[in-house]
Design a protein that fits this description.
mainly alpha; 10 helices
């Protein structure tokens, strides 16, 4: 559907199909991340499935959720265009005063090693090997991987390549446009989103989500009445 056309038929590769299925499975919901929570909270109001799923998609709009694999490719593009060496990139990443950050390394939940990354790395290596792809960005990615996996700075801080690092490479190798990466991510999340919504509509005792807040501000504050100003 993405690559076929009447004048240039697309021959499906079994390795690519496998890689795409693995990508979607690994990016399925795990715990209450931002988009899943959005779907669950909105769905708790007994709204229809379209409104709930739209909430999850909206949660992917910002920079902090769902776009990490795209950020990896954008980072590799910047490295390639700037002409800096891998050694210079690593030096910048280690400098706490430098705003540069390596994208696709470490994870907020998986503090040691992202278990999904190990599986995605195997698919990544297989795709790159079997397709004989010549892409300077992928060459930079492989070099970054080699350096960071043997550098004590990254090892001591558990800054290993995560699933987004490898999935970004795989999606690019498959020919999927960078601006479609988040769409591919959303497809992987859809089964979980739908399950969250269905659980709420099928449960007769379900209650609307109503998080409580605890005020931690000032208990007393001096002010000047408006009429005295």
């Amino acid at each position: 559907m993405m690559f076929d056309s009447p004048v240039n038929p697309y021959k499906i590769n079994k390795d690519t199909v496998k890689a795409l299925n693995v990508f979607w499975i690994l990016h399925a919901d795990h715990e209450q991340n931002c988009s899943t929570t959005a779907v669950r909270v909105v769905g708790s109001g007994k709204v229809n499935i379209y409104a709930s799923i739209s909430a999850g998609i909206s949660a992917l709009w910002g920079k902090l959720h769902g776009g990490a694999n795209q950020a990896v490719i954008e980072m590799l593009t910047q490295i390639a265009e700037s002409g800096v060496t891998i050694e210079e990139v690593i030096k910048k990443a280690k400098d706490k005063d430098d705003p540069f950050r390596l994208m696709g390394f470490g994870h907020r939940v998986y503090k040691t090693y992202d278990p999904r990354a190990k599986i995605m790395k195997k698919m990544c290596d297989k795709i790159l090997k079997n397709h004989n792809i010549n892409d300077p960005l992928l060459d930079i990615a492989k070099r970054l991987e080699e350096v960071t996996l043997t550098d004590n700075y990254f090892i001591d801080r558990n800054l290993y390549p995560n699933v987004d690092f490898y999935s970004g490479i795989v999606l690019r190798a498959m020919g999927i446009p960078t601006n479609m990466f988040t769409v591919m991510f959303a497809i992987g999340r859809l089964p979980g989103w739908i399950s969250q919504w269905k659980e709420s509509v099928d449960d007769p005792d379900w209650k609307i989500s109503r998080p409580r807040q605890i005020y931690t501000g000032e208990t007393k504050k001096d002010y000047v009445p408006i009429k005295q100003r």
